[in-house]
Each structure stands twice: as C-alpha cells, then as structure tokens.
Amino acid sequence: MLGEKNVKIKLKQIFAYVLVTVFLASTIYITTPVHAAGTVNIVNAVDGSNNLNFTSAQKSVGDTFVLNLTITDAVDITSWQVGIQWDPALLDFDSFIVPTDHIFATMNPVTAGPDASIPGLAIYGAAAGYGKGSFNGTGRLAQLTLKIKQGVGAGQSVECNISFEGMFVDTFILDRNGGDVTSNYTFNIAHYIYSGPAGPAQTHDIAVTNVAPSSTSVIENASLNINVTVANNGDFTETFDAGVKANGTNVALNQTVTNLASHASTTLTFVWNTTTFALGSYSIVAIAGPVAGETNTADNSRSGGIVQIVVPSADHDVAVTNVAPINTAIGQGFTLNVSVTVANNGLFTETFDVAIKAINTSETQAAPSQTVTDLNAGQDATLVFQWNTTGWTIDNYTLSATATPVPGEPNTADNTLVFGNINVMLPGDANGDGIVNMRDINYFLISQVFNSHPGMARYNPQMDVDASGRIDTRDLLIIAINFNKKL
Questions:
Q1: 181 and 213 co-located in one domain
Q2: How many angstroms separate the CA atoms of 97 and 109, rounded?
Q3: What φ, ψ does residue 119 adopt, rounded to 5°?
Q4: Which domain holds residue 246?
Q5: Is residue 298 part of a domain?
Q6: Domain boundary among 146, 176, 195
Q7: Buried b (16+ CB within 10 A) or exposed e, 58-85
Q8: At what angle do helices 2-22 and 473-481 cross, to 10 degrees?
Q9: pTM, to two decimals
C-alpha cells in the first residue's frame, strides 16, 4: 500500500510538470539565476531595422508589411509569449505565425494563439515540446503581418509605435525551469510612418482648448456657468456646434459657432441648471464638431474636471462612489486588488480614512485602512486595496467599502457602498465541485477561456484563480499544483 501511494504521488508530480512545461507555465513559484541581458526586437523583415517608413507611392491602403520578432543572446529558454500593440486607426491585423526557422522549429513546438480579438493588439506564444531541450543564442521568434488601414494626402503623414504590451502578463520569457527571465532582456520597439506626396495639405481641424466651470461644487437646483473656448486650427472658415455634457448628459442646448475664421478662437458660456440632476459627482466634458473632412478629432473634446452637486447643508460630506475588485473570484491564499473611489461632495478640504470589509457570518476588515489626505471640495480619489485571502475560509463574502465620517458631516448614508459577492474558492477548482481534478483541467482546455479578461464574453471569473485580470497559463499552473486537493 505504501508503494502504491508513493507511485500516485510521483505521477501527480510528473503530471503537473508536463502541464507547466507544455502550456508556458508562470514563474511566480520559481526563481532562477540572472544571466547576461539579451534583447527581444520588433524589426522590419526587409532590412532588419526598427523603422517601417513607407510612402503612398510605395504602398497603398490594404497593402501589408512584415515584422520579424527576434531574440539575441538567449540563454536556456523554453517558452515565450508576446503582446504586440499598434494604433488600430492606422493599421489592421493580418497574421501572426512562427516561420520555418523559428527558435523551437526542431523541438516539437507548441503554439498558443494568435489572439487578435482586440483591435490594435495581437498575442501569440510558443514553447519547446516537453523534454525537447531549450534554446540558446540568436534567432527568430515569429512573424507579424500588418495591413495599412488609413491613407494620407499631400503633405500628410501618420505614424505610431509598434511595441510590446503587458510586460510579465501578456509578454514574458520563461527558462527551462519555468523561471520568468523577462527582466533579463531589453525589449526594442519599431516605428511606423506612412507619408503622402510632398506639398502643403489643407486641413479641417477644430478643437476645444479650454473648459472652465465657475466652481467645483454647486448647490442642488442652482445654476453654474461653464465657459468653453473653441479654436479653428485648420485652413478653412468653419461653422459647427459645441456643447457640454455632465456624465454624458447635456447640461444645456448646444450652441452654433458661425463662420469662425482659420486660426481664430471664441469663448462660449453654457448655463447649467442642475434642477433635473441628482446629487453627486459629475464629469464635465465639452465637445465641438466635428466638421466635414476633419480627420484629427482627438482634440474635439476636453475635460472640465469634476463638479459636485451638493445639498445646502452639506458643508462636510464625503462618500464612496465606486468599489471595483479586479475579479469576483479569488483562489484562497492569493491577493485580490480592489479599487475604491471616494469623493468630497462638501465645501471644505477633508482628510479621512477608507476601509474595505468582507462579510459572511461576521464583518471583517479585508485590508489595512488607507488615509485620504487633503481632498479638495468637488474632487475624488481612487485607492487600491490588496485583500490577502491567506487564512480566510473558503466561502462567499459580501464586499463593501466605507469612508469614515468627517467632523460635522450630516449625510453619512453614502459613506458606505456595497459591491456584492466575492467567492474565495479552493485554488484551481474551476467548476466549483469542491475538488481539483481532471474535470477542472478539461474545463480549462475546452472552454476557450485562455487569454480572456473581464469584459469578454468568454471570460469566466472562476478560472482567473489568481485574480490577475487575465486567464493565462499561470492559472493552469495553479490547477496542476493543487491537483486532487478538495474541500
């Protein structure tokens, strides 16, 4: 019987090792010695440079170009994953492949991706097959092909960086022990420029250059003036509408700017009657145009900051306005990041404490309190709490945040905000049946949750075991390490 038990334990250890190696396992459990720094590069496949300079005479909208991802001075690496990002207004994704001469070509490689579901981002990875060795030296990782999306006119050019995204999350390098050696490498980006024919180009371009509310707080049912300056930065006389929104709702009727000369500006005054608006914090944004033919619309809107609508007696009033944990499930023993936004809805600068609490059978503070110091009237602040679930019972908890009332505060109903349910779960129990086994691993593999994150339809919070905000190979590693554990 003892011999059989030892065999089962040994099989579990081998099984976990296989999963970790094949699926590019995380490095949060293993440390490795530092080696000399190498580089990981995004380069032009034609000349090996970091520059991708094209003219409209060389390439047209819809044409593609190829980037090589290369590594130099690699030491003992067995897997890699990269997230590559660019400006989706300028370029479209075409393909992401490993070429025939890539670094793991002779090692029975395993690839993951590409995932190009988010415009302007592609994620891809590869690993040497189990027991097939590691790579040392210099070589190609992959080839990324992008397609030109935005055209250019005479005297115009567009440009963007093509760079690595999500270091240590979407982009990382692992060695043969599963150790994360990402920090041992320098990551060099590429730069894309697309230019039209030489010559001056005439443009249509209006902008909001200033937004100035007359105060950062206003008593309910009263009015507030908001001054908005708009400018014509283009080469034509323009007529256009401008308006102001508070949390996305118009504060007053739009106003029309008529025949504004090229390179001239004017200031408009909007009167915000707050009668139909509830008490609380409002983000003020002014918007102008756009006009026909305008391509640069990034400056057509501008923030005017936060304005608070308060009750007449609310000289002192702080509130919790948002509680946002990174995930609604967390493996026991891992740390959950919780963002809490607080606002000063009163008329005086305030200093106060904020705490988060988790409640099941009793109320327990989930992380140390934090102090908000000298928060100005009409302003808000966001704090990040870290709830370490080590020692917490596997259970469902109600998460809330509380701002300590300040002296003289009459309205304390908004000092506490309840988020809702957080599940502290058995690490790796993906299907919630109380045991970590092949059902959980199978669920991970067939449910297409890999590389998903909150906001995506295929994201499952239960599978994001470490609550990192992305389901990746680290979560699969946790399942493997906790194999056959049960409640």
A1: no
A2: 13
A3: -55, 135
A4: 206-310
A5: yes
A6: 195
A7: eeeeeeebbbbbbbeebbbbbbbbbbbb
A8: 180
A9: 0.42
DSSP string, 48-86: -SSEEEEETTT--TT-EEEEEEEEEEEEEEEEEEEEEE-
Tokens of 414: 């908004």
**Which one, of 65, 19, 76, 21, lies nearest residue 42 by Cα?**
65
Q: Using alpha carbons, select from 307, 78, 279, 309 the residue that is nearest to residue 172.
A: 78
Instruction: Name the domain count of the chain.
Output: 2
Q: Which residues pair with 127 in a beta bridge?
A: 79, 110
CB distance 461 to 328 below 8 Å: yes
d(CA 173, CA 77): 7
Q: Are 301 and 287 in contact (CB under 8 A)?
A: yes
List Cβ neighbours of 484 (8 Å cut-off, separation of 6 or more).
12, 435, 436, 437
**What are the structure tokens assigned to 275, written together?**
């009668």
Cα R_g (the chain), whole angstroms: 28
Q: Note down pLDDT in tens along the chain; length 487 residues.
A: 434 443 333 334 433 443 444 444 333 333 334 444 799 999 999 999 999 999 999 999 999 999 999 999 999 999 999 999 999 999 999 999 999 999 999 999 989 889 999 999 999 999 898 889 999 999 999 999 999 999 988 778 899 999 999 999 899 999 988 889 999 999 999 999 999 887 666 789 999 999 999 988 888 888 999 999 999 999 889 999 999 999 999 999 999 999 999 999 999 999 999 999 998 889 999 999 999 989 999 999 999 998 888 776 667 889 999 999 988 888 889 999 999 999 998 888 999 999 999 998 777 899 999 999 999 988 999 999 999 999 999 999 999 999 999 887 888 889 999 999 998 988 877 777 788 777 777 777 666 777 888 888 887 777 777 878 888 878 778 877 877 787 7
- Identify the residue whose tokens are 């009033």: 317
| Helices and strands (H, E) in the chain, number of each type | 3, 29
Are both 283 and 246 inside the same structural domain? yes
Do residues 53 and 475 make contact, with C-beta atoms less than 8 angstroms apart?
Answer: no
- Contacts of residues 100-109 at CB distance under 8 Å and 24 or more positions apart, as own/partner, are 101/139, 101/140, 102/126, 102/139, 102/140, 102/141, 102/142, 103/71, 103/74, 103/77, 103/135, 103/139, 103/140, 103/141, 104/128, 104/129, 104/132, 104/135, 107/132, 107/133, 107/135, 108/132
In a shared domain, residues 98 and 154: yes
Which residues have a Cβ under 8 Å from the Cβ of 125 and sit 6 or more positions away? 24, 79, 80, 81, 82, 111, 112, 113
C-alpha to C-alpha distance for 336 and 421, rounded to whole angstroms: 13
Distance CA 233, CA 316 (A): 44
